[in-house]
From TrEMBL:
Main location group: nucleus
Location within or outside the cell: Nucleus
Protein's name according to its UniProt entry: GCF C-terminal domain-containing protein
Assigned GO CC terms: nucleus
Natural source organism: Prasinoderma singulare
Regions annotated as coiled coil: none
Alphabetically ordered keywords of this record: Nucleus
Length: 114
């Protein structure tokens, strides 16, 4: 039904516009997924015991989820969207997080993210 699609598009457009301001007041070092993931990865590699003791491995999904969700808002797997990836593994958040946690900690500890 064309009317339902138009209503969906209008609501989606309003939601995407509102999402653009979600992190507008965040400090630059916390405003992007790459910045936050990079900070966490540097911490994990340089100070693995501190990283573990602060329960970061358990908290990382909650810290990174808002960035992923903001990008996922634009994903339209049913109808597709011009300029949007068709698969989630083609999205920027996936590429940013794909290798997080793969570098060995400097102190040689194993399982630093467990």
């Amino acid at each position: 039904d064309g009317g339902a699609r138009e209503a969906f598009d209008a609501t989606r457009h309003a939601l995407l516009e509102a999402a653009q301001t979600a992190l507008a007041d965040a400090a630059p070092k916390f405003a992007t997924l790459d910045a936050v993931a990079g900070f966490l990865e540097r911490w994990r590699v340089a100070w693995a015991p501190s990283f573990r003791d602060a329960y970061v491995p358990q908290s990382a999904p909650q810290l990174l989820a808002p960035f992923v969700r903001l990008e996922m808002l634009a994903w339209e797997p049913l109808w597709g969207s011009e300029g949007a990836p068709e698969a989630f593994d083609a999205m920027a958040w996936y590429a940013s997080l794909f290798e997080v946690g793969t570098a060995a900690p400097r102190d040689g500890t194993e399982g630093a993210t467990r």
